Amino acid sequence: MLIGKKHFLTVGAVAVALAIHAVPAVAAQQKSVAVTAIVEHPALDAVRDGVQDALKKAGYEPGKNLKWQYQSAQGNTGTAAQIARKFVGDRPDAIVAIATPSAQSVVAATKDVPVVYSAVTDPVAAQLVPSMEPSGTNVTGVSDLLALDKQVELIKKVVPNAKRVGMVYNPGEANSVVVVKRLQELLPKAGLTLVEAAAPRTVDVASAARSLIGKVDVIYTNTDNNVVSAYEALVKVGNDAKIPLVASDTDSVKRGAIAALGIDYHDLGVQTGKIVVRILKGEKPGAIASETSSNLRLFVNPGAATKQGVTLSDALVKSAAEIIK
To answer: Are strands 259-263 and 218-221 parallel, antiparallel or unpaired?
Structure first.
């Protein structure tokens, strides 16, 4: 019996030793991706989900061979900085930073952990990368920059007689400041002027919109995170005051804007996720050029047009990729 016990213990010890040696091999296959966004709203949530879908399609699944973490800063830049520091301390294989404030926080927090930004209008102006070419740093990503001349064309199609375009935006958000400056240059060429209304916080959106009543013929909204987070407040003002709303975020049309010519943000997330996959497979972020999306889609909402005192042309409605009813 004693000999049998010794034999049993020896076999057990071998099994334990094999298990211990097996752990590093499994761990070596495990990848880690940390994702953060400045706030939760439909467009940014779609980016996050698109990233995860791209990772799954490439064979990286949470709970199997991927450690996935996600945190929203809930619209607070201080919280965004805290999340950035935590994620950098975790040393993941890649950090995905969605929207300009989160991307700026993460890039400021690390010079070596790979960072992939997404849904950033102007990554160069936001000082994330020196140009859209390979950065040579730890940063790359996907911009949601839109051709603003096409946005101006859409405004004129929705409200042909418009002269004054209102814009509610957060002056502390770099991507919105870039859009304002560009519109100040573009609109006069189309016989239009820009009237600005600042909304530094989400709770300021409604009052900023009300300040435009009687001063504008249409309100244009970009992908400003404060505005998109509180879009229903803007829609209420538009409906009550009969001010047409034109957006660049297609999800905003589902929430009450009349029209938007914009990017499918889930597709943008998938595009971002494909870059993350390249990094997980060994490519350096600094060798990967920043990308944009050219896949624009027109959404229209005839019901919102009626509420905001506008009749859409048949040609515009027929050209839409999606009609919200």
So the answer is: unpaired
- Alpha carbon distance 320, 178 (integer Å): 27
Residue (of 37, 66, 114) closest to 268 by Cα position: 37
* pLDDT score at 147: 87
Which tens digits make up the pLDDT trace of 216-250? Answer: 999 999 999 999 999 999 999 999 999 999 999 99
Provide the pLDDT for residue 29: 74
Q: What is the DSSP letter of 285?
A: G
80 Cβ contact partners less than 8 Å away, ≥ 6 residues apart = 36, 38, 73, 101, 102, 105
In the chain, the amino acid numbered 48 is R
Which amino acid makes up residue 304?
A: A
- What's the order of all strands across the beta sheet hosting 31-37? 66-72, 31-37, 94-98, 115-120, 139-143, 291-292
Residues 6+ apart with CB under 8 A from 21: none
Other C-beta atoms closer than 10 Å to the C-beta of 21 total 9
**Given a cut of 60, is residue 95 above it in pLDDT?**
yes
Tens of pLDDT, residue by residue over 241-269, are 999 999 999 999 999 999 999 998 999 99
The span from the CA of 199 to the CA of 208, in Å, is 6
Task: Report the distance separating Cα 304 and Cα 325, nearest Å.
Answer: 9
Query: What is the distance between the alpha carbons of residues 100 and 38, in angstroms, rounded to a whole number?
Result: 8
Q: Which residue has the tokens 């467009």?
A: 43
pLDDT of amino acid 146:
87
Dihedral sign from CA coordinates of 127, 129, 131, 132: negative
Separation between Cα atoms, residue 115 and residue 137, nearest integer Å? 9
Average pLDDT over residues 186-208: 97
For residue 6, which phi and psi values (nearest 5 degrees)? -60, -40
The model's pTM is 0.80
pLDDT over 50 at 8, yes or no: no
Give dist(CA 99, CA 84) in Å, integer: 13
Give the residue from 163, 164, 153 showing the smallest Cα distance to 296. 153
